[in-house]
Specification:
The protein has about 270 residues and is an all-alpha fold. It has one domain. The chain is built from eight helices and four strands; from the N terminus they run αββαααββαααα. The protein has helices spanning about 20-45, 100-110, 110-120, 150-170, 180-200, 200-210, 225-235, 240-260; strands spanning about 50, 55, 175, 175-180. The protein starts with about 20 loop residues before the first helix and ends in an 11-residue tail after the last helix. The structure holds FE2/S2 (inorganic) cluster. FE2/S2 (inorganic) cluster binds near residues 111 and 112.
């Protein structure tokens, strides 16, 4: 009697007839481009300040360099002034090492980004219904257990958000004079998109709506329910705001760089 032997599915085998590989390819290209650009800028903190604008790669600045970094944040704008003398000489004097770095921890452990870079870089699997090649995903265990810290990185992101809104509103004042420039609008859009991304976070949604069995058992619609519904709406668009906010952070930095380096002129009411 003939015996049928089933071949084990090989690497990237799938019955999907569509171009399933486009999505992970674009994701990988986008992540490399934007995170690469922002990391480079954060580690080369020059032209990050154009009064009253500041790049989000260094905002808010705890320390600022006092020499060797053209276009750096003025000492009186840094929370603790100039970098301390004990700062290791092999490290660039970048404010990004401090509070702005909270954004990296938040994005790196974000549920959406995890799914995106696991697929794009580790092909585990590269897309739905496609056989992966690098081991198999076993959840956030072993080496990946740190991903569970995401709920705590949220607090850092909320703090950073307050700081970026503060910097955005501060950009209405140049040398104490009230006005507005294109840079002000760019910085406020940046804070808005980051808010839309942060308030759609799964951890935030759980924080405001988790552990509640019934929102309206007492016959009233609670404000908490409205908040949770708003967060749920944003959560459904989390990927969209993850990308929009990432792209706009890079754009805001680029805008400040171009104005600070004198490459372009900022249209504003200060003259
Ligand atoms: S799940 Fe994406 S920021 Fe929390």
């Amino acid at each position: 009697m003939a015996e049928s032997v089933k071949a084990a599915p090989s690497f990237l085998s799938t019955r999907r007839p569509d171009t399933w590989w486009v999505q992970p390819l674009l994701t990988a290209a986008g992540l490399i481009t934007f995170f690469g650009y922002l990391t480079y800028r954060a580690m080369n903190a020059t032209y990050v300040w154009a009064e009253p604008y500041i790049s989000p790669t260094v905002a808010p600045p705890l320390f600022t360099p006092i020499a060797g970094y053209p276009g750096s944040v003025p000492v009186d704008h840094a929370w603790l002034g100039a970098f301390p003398t004990w700062w290791p000489s092999f490290l660039p004097q970048s404010p990004a090492f401090f509070i702005p770095g909270l954004a990296i921890a938040f994005r790196f452990t974000c549920y959406y980004y995890r799914g995106a870079y696991y697929k794009a870089f580790f092909v585990t699997p590269p897309n739905c219904a496609v056989k992966g090649g690098v081991g198999s995903y076993k959840g956030e265990t072993m080496l990946l257990v740190f991903q569970n810290l995401h709920r705590y990185t949220l607090y850092g992101a909320l703090f950073l958000l307050v700081c970026l809104w503060w910097e955005g509103f501060s950009a209405f004042f140049k040398h104490g004079q009230l006005g507005i420039g294109v840079g002000t609008v760019v910085m406020l859009i940046n804070a808005s998109l980051l808010s839309l991304y942060t308030f759609g976070c799964h951890s935030w949604r759980h924080l405001i709506g988790g552990k509640v069995d019934c929102f309206s058992c007492d016959g009233r619609v609670s404000p908490r329910h409205k908040l949770w519904k708003g967060s749920s709406w944003l959560n459904g668009r989390h990927m969209l705001f993850a990308w929009c906010s990432l792209v706009w952070v890079a754009f805001t930095d680029l805008y400040v760089y171009l104005v600070s380096s004198g490459t372009i002129h900022d249209l504003n009411t200060w003259g």
